[in-house]
Amino acid sequence: MFDGSDFPKPLDEEVFDQWLENGRQSKIGYAFLLVVWDAFEAAYLPVYAERREQMQDYQRYQESTGRESLVAAYNLYSESRIG
């Protein structure tokens, strides 16, 4: 996933599925998975959020000037993309 010129590099589908599962199994009541790009590490990171408003903590990937930027956000339970 995240193939194409709009993204820094592809993300393995199995890794993404494991991130979803880890978020659902957490004892903390997470509702969202934020896929964040770390420019220094040149890697995607999973960030779990309880509230949708927490997405605002990150700049969008192509607009970001910082180290971490939001690539996409997903509902952990419906697996639908929300951002």
Description:
- There is one protein chain.
- The protein contains one helix and four strands.
- The protein has one helix at 13-25; strands spanning 32-38, 43-49, 59-60, 68-75.
- It has a four-stranded mixed β-sheet with strand order 2-1-4-3, covered by helices on one side.
- The longest helix is centred in the first third of the chain and has 13 residues, at 13-25.
- The chain is globular and about 30 Å long.
- It starts with 12 loop residues before the first helix and ends in an 8-residue tail after the last strand.
Topology of this protein?
Layout (H helix, E strand, L loop, with lengths): L12 H13 L6 E7 L4 E7 L9 E2 L7 E8 L8
Estimate the mean pLDDT confidence: 94
Order of helices and strands: HEEEE
Q: Level of helix content?
A: 10-25%
Strand content bin:
25-35%
Question: What characteristics describe this protein?
Answer:
single chain, 83 residues, 4-stranded mixed β-sheet, 1 helix, 4 strands, 29% strand
Short structural description:
The protein is α+β, with helices and mostly antiparallel strands and 83 residues long.
